[in-house]
Specification:
Immunoglobulin-like; 33% strand; five-stranded mixed beta sheet; cell adhesion; alpha+beta; cleavage on pair of basic residues; 42 strands; calcium ion binding; transmembrane helix
Length: 792
Amino acid sequence: MLLLLCAIQELGTWAMHTAVEDPGLGQPADPALLAGGRVKRGWVWNQFFVVEEYTGTEPLYVGKIHSDSDEGDGSIKYTISGEGAGTIFLIDEITGDIHATERLDREQKTFYTLRAQARDRQTDQLLEPESEFIIKVQDINDSEPRFLEGPYIGSVAELSPVGTSVMQVMASDADDPTYGSSARVVYSVLEGEQHFTVDSKTGVIRTAVADLDRETQDRYEVVIRATDMAGQLGGLSGSTTVTIVITDVNDNPPRFPQKMYQFSIVETAPVGTAIGRVKAEDSDVGENTDMTYQVKDEEGVEMFRVTTDSNTQEAIITVQKPLDYESKRVHTVVVEALNKFVDPRFVDLGTFRDQTIVRVSVLDVDEPPEFRPTSHLMEVQEDAHVGSVVGVVTALDPDTANHPVRYAIDRSTDTERIFDIDANTGAIVTGKVLDRETAGWHNITVLAMEADNHSQVSRASLRIRILDVNDNPPELATPYEAAVCEDTKPGQLIQTISVVDRDEPQSGHRFYFTLAPEANNHFSLLDVQDNTAAVHTQRMGFNRQEQDVYLLPILVVDSGPPALSSTGTLTIRICSCDSDGAIQSCNSTAYVVSATLSPGALIALLVCILILVVLVLLILTLKRHHKSHLTSEDDEDMRDNVIKYNDEGGGEQDTEAYDMSALRSLYDFSEIKGGDGGGGPGEGPLCGNPASELHALPQWVQSPDMDFSVFRDYICRKVEQADEDLSVPPYDSFQTYAFEGLDSPVPSLSSINTWSTGSEQDFSYLGGWGPRFRQLAALYAGRRGEEDGEES
């Protein structure tokens, strides 16, 4: 069993005397060690605390390990392992003394865990179980307080009461807070104590005065010190600088730097022209400087307008009404500035507004003449004679000099020169005959200019109304036509007549109707007294055979003055009707058509029909001409096609000129050779036995090794297609297909070197090819006969 020392603190050192049952902190003892019967064993430590920041020249003695089995003969070897073993901590193998060879810092590492062993020096076997122990680093006050969250920036509103909290600062001390007062920190103010205080325990900074003024000083640099050892003598300290910004409140009213401002502007400046800018100064900042401006006096409110520039907080004075140098040369305006946001806490400091006077001088300029009034309305009768005075326009020079004025008409508004103006008096006279029905109103522009300076021009609009004169007779509204049944009765209403009049009398139209003296007595006219008249029949029945159309003259008179009249004609047609009175037919179908279509529509319809007929005839003519052309062309196309080839091929081995495999691939030569030539029964001589066509070919190609069935089949298919397709013109085409095989004795297909002549060929077989080749057979048979005659 091991004996351990218990730790007792005395005079800064520690001694440990502890007895426990377990030698290895609860670990069982080595059975080999217990075999000798001795069970009371243990470790002894004289010291296991070491002071930090040791500055001596010799290694610092930490403590001693000792086994109760050590008899001092050096047979036991002491060793340690763990944190810092062999580097920071060294042990004497014989005595068990432990020394620290390096300077320790508790703030970096507070303790070290090591394990101790007692071994037999000869066998190096453990004599006791390995045991763990701790070496603690004893703290000393070697770390000053530090402000880790700096730099500090706080703010407080100006004029805040005493004791207003600004912010809190905190310092940290790395020393052991559980050992002594090394880590107990207190706070104090080194600089700035006239305006701020700090709580010694919490580090809260507060205002010390109530008259902090941002306009006087907008920031303070306060130095706060933190001291450990609770501020006792010998304690370490650290400091930091706290920047305290004084925020603004609206405690200053706006003030104009000047009590009077002077501006000048020309009298011709248009409305909205800026005259100038004034600005009231405000010592505050931010939104506390936002202000509005207004005009206080009545005269200024009428003539001028003040707005605020939101960016510069300036008052912009603009013209609200036209200025006139001749009427008033100087205007006085009272402008007031006031804060937009007022803090009610500082109302007792005074009114937050200020006023200034703005004098505006109007400058004289040479102005154009002014029309009085600026617009005119004149009236003139449409029957006024040329040169009649319509009215007079007047313009005056507003300047003090009062220059004479000359007048003119802007001809772009009176291109027809209907009116003229007297250049000196401004009298408007007619230049042409007027007609209200053509133009009832005339809008012209009159110019007025100074006599000696035509660049000073003003304009005025003049509206001239043409008054109506009864100079147009009334007329029937339309060319009236009516239809009457043959069996009509007296008093039947035929037509209601209305009239139109281009005149517009002020009292309104009033028309009178009557039948002309030359009218017959078959019809009557009734004036309805509402500017219309009704036509009725006066006889019993009509006879279309006797007269089918009646022309009724109607006389229309207006109310004047003077009274004008005109005669219109009502066309009345006599028609046959059914028992219900519905019109069946009139004298001619033209009337029925005319009842539905106007003469213009009938003419257009006839023109369209005529155009369609011409188009149809033209198309038929073109088709007939084209057909005759094709027929003549087909007749003329019965000819021989002579195709000349001026170059020679290289035979089947010439793969560059033409690939014969493309032609051969369409047919199986082996099958053709083994068959009967590909011709069926009834195909005629052309599609029969190959031997039947060999005699017709040139003699130099009649070789038993050559097979012409391919070309024969191709020609047969073409003949069949031509016979079946009746739309194809009957062209005669004779083509000879031949090619050279391997080792051909004939080097060329040219007719120049042929072994045969034309006389050696027999074209009699062409007669058996049918009617389509009859002409071809006749041509070649005739040529053959001519050749035979020459030979004989």
